[in-house]
Q: What sequence folds into this?
């Protein structure tokens, strides 16, 4: 089964926040994305609310509940108490924990599962006890997967930034792709589901989908939003859904 596409709305929200105006509409474009075939919406509510605002979360939750009940809400972020309170309030189907410093422009590395396990384990346990699916942001490193599994999470989300950065170097892209593939193989052998995200595009997603056939979900924001400026959100989502199936004809 092809990986499910979850559309990250942060870039849409960042554009909206340039003015004190309600457009572009975060929920409006989320609705278009889901109607066009996306299977979920992702947000990363940072403490300074520089893109997704806390007040967006109930509207996105209601959109999914009222109009797309078979789709999912994924909230990602660093697990402060404030973040965990947002999760409790808005009840996403999936919580993705990322090791971001609040000052970071975007996520740029995965967890050190062995070194940060004592911090993560009780948080994962707390979320699991409340019924959330938990995914942990992970660097492409097969040796870390046993430590990730020991934390009790359901999935990892492979950080694909280095792979995306090779958009103009096919040889380096092949090396990064194999690192991702071997990490996914190690995770799957331990019973961990595999998600992926960061700088994925219509051009590089098909190869990833072919190398990791058990890929469960991809969360895509920047590249998808950039394409939507050219093709429109609905057509862009259809292009990315096709790419999730390993097809690279755009």
A:
């Amino acid at each position: 089964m092809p990986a499910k596409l979850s559309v990250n709305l942060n870039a849409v929200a960042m554009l909206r926040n340039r003015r004190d105006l309600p457009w572009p509409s975060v929920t409006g474009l989320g609705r278009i994305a889901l109607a066009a075939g996306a299977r979920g919406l992702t947000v990363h509510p940072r403490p300074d609310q520089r893109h997704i605002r806390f007040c967006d979360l109930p509207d996105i939750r209601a959109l999914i509940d009222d109009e797309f009940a078979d789709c999912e809400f994924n909230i990602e972020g660093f697990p402060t108490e404030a973040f965990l309170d947002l999760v409790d309030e808005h009840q996403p189907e999936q919580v993705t924990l990322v090791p971001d410093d609040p000052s970071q422009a975007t996520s740029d590395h995965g967890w050190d599962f062995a070194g940060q396990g004592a911090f993560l384990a009780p948080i994962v346990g707390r979320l699991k006890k409340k019924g959330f699916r938990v995914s942990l942001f992970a660097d492409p490193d097969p040796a870390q997967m046993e430590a990730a599994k020991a934390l009790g999470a359901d999935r990892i989300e492979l950080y694909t930034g280095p792979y995306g950065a090779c958009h103009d170097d096919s040889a380096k892209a092949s090396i990064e792709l194999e690192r991702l593939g071997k990490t996914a193989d190690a995770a799957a052998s331990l019973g961990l589901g595999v998600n992926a995200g960061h700088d994925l595009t219509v051009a590089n997603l098909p190869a990833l989908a072919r190398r990791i056939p058990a890929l469960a979900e991809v969360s895509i924001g920047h590249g998808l939003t950039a394409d939507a400026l050219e093709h429109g959100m609905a057509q862009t989502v259809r292009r990315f859904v096709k790419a999730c199936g390993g097809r690279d004809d755009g």
Notes: Residues 83 and 149 are 23 Å apart (CA to CA). Residues 4-244 form a domain with the TIM Barrel fold (CATH 3.20.20.70). Residues 170-189 form the longest helix (20 residues). The first strand starts at residue 4 and ends at 8.
